[in-house]
Amino acid sequence: MSTFNTKRFATYANFDLTINKNFYRNMSLVLILTIIGVVIISFFMRWLTYQISAPSLVYNDLTLTAWVVIVIMQFSFYIAAGCTLHPLRNKQGRITHLTIPATNLEKYLWHVVICIVGCFLTAVVAVALADLVNYLMTLMVFKETEGVQSLFVNVFTNNTSSIISQFTSSMHASMNGVPMDPTYAPPAEPFLERIANASIIVTWCSIFCVTAIYAFANTVMYKFNLPVTYLILKAIEFCFAILIFIGMIWFTSNVDKVEQLGEESIRTFFENFHIYLYVYGGFAVLAGIGFWAWAYNRYTKAQLINRFFRK
Questions:
Q1: Residue 9's closest CA among 102, 86, 96?
Q2: pLDDT value, residue 168
Q3: 6-51 and 118-142 are packed helices; what angle lies between their axes, rounded to 10 degrees?
Q4: DSSP letter assigned to residue 88
Q5: Which of 39, 79, 82, 220 might form a disulfide with 214, Cβ 3.0–4.6 angstroms?
Q6: Cβ neighbours, 10 Å, residue 279
Q7: Are the CB atoms for 288 and 78 separated by under 8 Å?
């Protein structure tokens, strides 16, 4: 059974859905209800803004809500990746897993599909439902929906990046003595638009990489891998923070040398900053692919019982 067979794959998928349907259903409901709950809270915040007679552009804006939803989706991918081998969490599940007539590729691919792809599709459905709930609540309370942004569009398109670049441009104008008007943003400079777009892509590349790390950790520990992986990533972030802190100390102690670079050099750096972001995103994707391959390699070695969990 070294080749991929669609019939075997479907048989194993049907078996897994039958045995673990409650787990998959509960995880999906938690994600859907969480996103809808965030949108309901966001609606009441918009309603309070409406009550103080704020401009319609302010209380109809869903950019911040979209970013909160993206963060929720991000952590849901991590949790889903950490549950990729959920059926192997106990000895009986491991024995049952070994006795099913399917290849390692078919089994692992199904777990990836049902956990990662299924999580993404659930998130898409959740955002669509939340968008519908927001539309209906807006229609009932405000008696109109004109000007209200679409949450679905904000989450799954680059519309959010355009708003971010405009906000950045507004902040730049405010810092230069121009009063900041929340209802108006001057045209963003081209390099700010490029940085904003690159930031969106890099965000998804980073999510892909960290998701792969959680999936890899799940092949090492079938239980408690989520908190362990989280602590390891926080330790890595702490090391990066130390390096950044050291860099800040150097920067503050060598201000005269930095000033010699000149304003034009610094501006050139920011104008090309999106290139560095894309390079980082590329490395994140390559690292993610590597961790997925490593995870599958460990899985094929049938490490179904290790020194951490023998029961």
A1: 102
A2: 44
A3: 30
A4: G
A5: 82
A6: 12
A7: no
Cβ atoms within 10 A of the Cβ of 183, count?
Answer: 9
Which tokens belong to 141? 């309370």
Across the chain, which has 311 residues, the per-10-residue mean pLDDT values are 78 88 92 94 82 66 84 89 83 77 87 92 94 87 72 73 44 45 52 78 86 88 80 80 75 59 62 83 92 88 53 47
Could you tell me the two tokens for 111?
Answer: 């777990």
Q: Give the number of C-alpha atoms closer than 13 A to the C-alpha of residue 238, restricted to the C-beta side.
A: 6
Looking at residue 7, its amino acid is K
Within a 13 Å sphere around the CA of 140, how many CA atoms are in the beta-carbon half?
8
| Under 8 Å between Cβ of 148 and 60 | yes
Tokens of 65: 């809500």
Alpha carbon distance 21, 28 (integer Å): 11
Q: Which two tokens stand for residue 243?
A: 């390096």
Tokens of 263: 């304003």
pLDDT of amino acid 260: 55
Name the strand (E) or helix (H) holding 91. Answer: helix 91-99
- What pLDDT is attached to residue 228? 80
d(CA 89, CA 23): 13
Give the number of other Cβ atoms within 10 Å of residue 58's Cβ: 13
Cα–Cα dist 131/137, whole Å: 10
Start-end of H helices in 143-272: 151-156, 159-175, 190-220, 225-253, 255-259, 262-271
Q: Which residues contact 171 (CB under 8 A, 6 or more apart)?
A: 180
What's phi and psi for 208, nearest 5 deg? -60, -45
Residues belonging to the chain: 311
Cβ-count burial 189-224 (b if 16+ within 10 Å, e if not): bebbbbbbbbbbbbbebbbbbbbbbbbbbbbebbee
CA 175, chain centre distance (Å): 31
pLDDT of residue 167: 43
